[in-house]
Amino acid sequence: MIEKDRKYIWHPFTQQKNMADPIAIIRGEGTLLIDADNNTYIDAISSWWVNLHGHAHPYIAGKLYQQAMQLEQVIFAGFTHQPAIDLAERLIDILPGNFAKIFYSDNGSTSTEVALKMAVQYWWNQRKNDVDVKKKNKLLALKNAYHGDTFGAMSVSERSVFTMAFHDLLFEVIFIDAPAADNIEATKELIASHSDEIAAFIYEPLVQGAGGIQMYEATMLDELLSIVQQHDIICIADEVMTGFGRTGKLFCSEYMQNKPDIICLSKGLTGGTMALGVTACTEKIYNAYVNDDKLKTFFHGHSFTANPLACTAALASLDLLLKEECLKQIDWLTEQNKLFAETLLTAEFPVRLKNIRTQGTILAFEIAEGKDEYLNNVSTVFTKKALAHGIYLRPLGNTVYIMPPYCITEEEYERVKEVIIAILIEN
Ligand SMILES: *Cc1c(COP(=O)(O)O)cnc(C)c1O
């Protein structure tokens, strides 16, 4: 397998030169990934933050099989189907805020891309004459943000090693600091001075994922949202990573009083089984598109929009997620993370740890070694050592974190802790 992989495949986010052999995974079960030599690895980062209930979950697999035998895919313009309708209804029921409509796409990047276009065109649709057209078309975003890899999503993300080759091609964005007591006044002024040109504000609520699992306070975000909303700026919550229980509540936006106008979902949406994106919006946003003027149509869609299999997987994942048992497991994991953070805070290691933090099922800290950046070599070394101990971890530079599937057992969690501590001691 490895020989053919090397011959034919180009892997994501990976420098191909001197690339370590990838590990061929044959099957998964619960939190475990099992390779061709029968080694098992606890998937402590939920396979890039997507898996909620464990791998190859028989309930989701069964539902998928039934749906695949009935209808695998159909064009979603002029047609509809039960899984898409059921999923939209159930999401609108549980999303925090007054959401009215669900727009489907394929992944996290497309869900944010759709949100940005939806917000910009919302204002464009309300233009009175051509002079007005240029107004309200700028975007506001947080420094250190990550919203995906397509061009719009890259534009509203931090200018970083990920985007460096494309800087000249990215559109202009007003970046502000993640809200904190010492910058909120300056941010308030900045927003006020640009308010008539800003169409929308996009943010990862409370946890900036790919930017190094950086966390900030709910009270501060709430204050920022209230400022933004006073200026009639559309709020887009990118809950691609934080959705579906990750931060301890079903959706992270529940921590704030001020709710978004648009919400983006993917990753955990299908329990991590299939690619699917959702952009939900309020009636207000939607109504700006309902018009006799055909130019006010939202001209966006993807071949696999609302794929029936993906929607079915999402429905099955929701069944599992909303069970008492799973919600309890999320609370338990939240507690375990707090305890683990305490342990890390009080223990002595040969390396210094910085900024030990948790938010729900996520725990992160930095190893104070080299620069705080994605290319920091801590990542490669840590991943290799953890794999040798049967744990899959993938630090972002020198940011070590865990984000396990909710079904992780007590023994497995203990094992993850032991291995992290052992690596830190070895260091
Ligand atoms: C992963 C991620 C995305 C991009 O999702 P993809 O499915 O990888 O395209 C967007 N926003 C956030 C917050 C993410 O964590």
Automatic annotation (TrEMBL):
<dbReference type="InterPro" id="IPR049704">
    <property type="entry name" value="Aminotrans_3_PPA_site"/>
</dbReference>
<comment type="similarity">
    <text>Belongs to the class-III pyridoxal-phosphate-dependent aminotransferase family. BioA subfamily.</text>
</comment>
<feature type="binding site">
    <location>
        <begin position="302"/>
        <end position="303"/>
    </location>
    <ligand>
        <name>pyridoxal 5'-phosphate</name>
    </ligand>
</feature>
<feature type="binding site">
    <location>
        <position position="394"/>
    </location>
    <ligand>
        <name>substrate</name>
    </ligand>
</feature>
<dbReference type="InterPro" id="IPR005815">
    <property type="entry name" value="BioA"/>
</dbReference>
<comment type="pathway">
    <text>Cofactor biosynthesis; biotin biosynthesis; 7,8-diaminononanoate from 8-amino-7-oxononanoate (SAM route): step 1/1.</text>
</comment>
<feature type="binding site">
    <location>
        <position position="48"/>
    </location>
    <ligand>
        <name>substrate</name>
    </ligand>
</feature>
<dbReference type="Pfam" id="PF00202">
    <property type="entry name" value="Aminotran_3"/>
</dbReference>
<keyword id="KW-0032">Aminotransferase</keyword>
<keyword id="KW-0663">Pyridoxal phosphate</keyword>
<feature type="site" description="Participates in the substrate recognition with KAPA and in a stacking interaction with the adenine ring of SAM">
    <location>
        <position position="13"/>
    </location>
</feature>
<feature type="binding site">
    <location>
        <position position="146"/>
    </location>
    <ligand>
        <name>substrate</name>
    </ligand>
</feature>
<dbReference type="InterPro" id="IPR015421">
    <property type="entry name" value="PyrdxlP-dep_Trfase_major"/>
</dbReference>
<dbReference type="InterPro" id="IPR015424">
    <property type="entry name" value="PyrdxlP-dep_Trfase"/>
</dbReference>
<keyword id="KW-0808">Transferase</keyword>
<dbReference type="InterPro" id="IPR005814">
    <property type="entry name" value="Aminotrans_3"/>
</dbReference>
<feature type="binding site">
    <location>
        <position position="301"/>
    </location>
    <ligand>
        <name>substrate</name>
    </ligand>
</feature>
<keyword id="KW-0949">S-adenosyl-L-methionine</keyword>
<feature type="modified residue" description="N6-(pyridoxal phosphate)lysine">
    <location>
        <position position="267"/>
    </location>
</feature>
<feature type="binding site">
    <location>
        <position position="267"/>
    </location>
    <ligand>
        <name>substrate</name>
    </ligand>
</feature>
<dbReference type="GO" id="GO:0004015">
    <property type="term" value="F:adenosylmethionine-8-amino-7-oxononanoate transaminase activity"/>
</dbReference>
<keyword id="KW-0963">Cytoplasm</keyword>
<protein>
    <recommendedName>
        <fullName>Adenosylmethionine-8-amino-7-oxononanoate aminotransferase</fullName>
        <ecNumber>2.6.1.62</ecNumber>
    </recommendedName>
</protein>
<feature type="binding site">
    <location>
        <begin position="108"/>
        <end position="109"/>
    </location>
    <ligand>
        <name>pyridoxal 5'-phosphate</name>
    </ligand>
</feature>
<comment type="function">
    <text>Catalyzes the transfer of the alpha-amino group from S-adenosyl-L-methionine (SAM) to 7-keto-8-aminopelargonic acid (KAPA) to form 7,8-diaminopelargonic acid (DAPA). It is the only aminotransferase known to utilize SAM as an amino donor.</text>
</comment>
<keyword id="KW-0093">Biotin biosynthesis</keyword>
<dbReference type="InterPro" id="IPR015422">
    <property type="entry name" value="PyrdxlP-dep_Trfase_small"/>
</dbReference>
<comment type="subunit">
    <text>Homodimer.</text>
</comment>
<feature type="binding site">
    <location>
        <position position="238"/>
    </location>
    <ligand>
        <name>pyridoxal 5'-phosphate</name>
    </ligand>
</feature>
